[in-house]
Amino acid sequence: MNVLSSVFSNLLKGKYYLLAGILIIAFIIGATEFIHQVRGIPYADLTRDPNTISLKPKYIGFVSQIGLFFWFGTVSLCLASAIILKHLAGDSLYVLYFRFFSFFTFVLGVDDVFMLHDESAHRGINEKVIYIIYIVSLLYFLVKSFKLVFKTNFVLLFIAGLFLGLSVLWDVLYSSDYFIEDSFKIIGIVFWFLYFLDTTIKSVINTTRGTIIEKA
């Protein structure tokens, strides 16, 4: 009986996470079924590893796969920090900052996984338009948050932006030279992650000490 009570108690404590898990899983399975029914794509092509389906060696896409770890690692850092700082200090500039970058990085990561900018080009939308939307959105938010940015180790962010920008530029000018483009890209992604690793750790530590609480 004590075991059942403990299980029930834990379920109640984690009810929101349980509900979130159910909704996420339902969305994934539902989307898979929808694509299968509407597009006629076999289940195996939607659920299995791409290299297994294509019978390619496991090292195919090595650098790209590593980049995804850093993209979504950054998403987790920013999202967790926004939640923690909201709990510690209420709404603040840092909470808004991390919320924005958790969403923005998630979009970049999803684009990278599913090659959305390439897909848009196939549908008649110039991929340069997608790049411009990303750049303008980022610059607009950074300008609005410039006071906060300069309190962080912004050199890391600058390096990340520089190399991601070079990757985009190289893609536009020399679309067939993948090594240089993807080298620039992985450098940018790694420094993007390192910037937010440094910023999230320092912001949480300093907020617990009451030194960076700034209301939004």
Give a written overview of the molecule:
By secondary structure, the protein is an all-alpha fold. It has 2 domains: 47 residues, no CATH class; 152 residues, no CATH class. 82% of the residues lie in helices and 0% in strands.
What is the gist of this entry?
With 216 residues, the chain is mainly alpha-helical. Helices cover 82% and strands 0% of the residues. The chain folds into 2 domains: 1-47, no CATH class; 57-208, no CATH class.
- The termini sit apart by 48 Å
Name the beta content range: under 5%
CA-based shape: globular
Sketch the topology as an H/E string, one letter per element. HHHHHHHHHHH
Q: Which regions contain 5 or more consecutive residues with pLDDT less than 50? A: none
Largest sheet: none
What is the total number of structural domains? Answer: 2
**How would you classify the helix and strand content by structural class?**
mainly alpha
The amount of helix comes to over 70%
Write down how many β-strands occur, each being a DSSP E stretch of 2 or more residues.
0
Q: Which radius of gyration do the C-alpha atoms yield?
A: 21 Å
Mean pLDDT: 89
Helix tally? 11
Task: Jot down its keywords.
mainly alpha; 11 helices; 2 domains; 216 residues
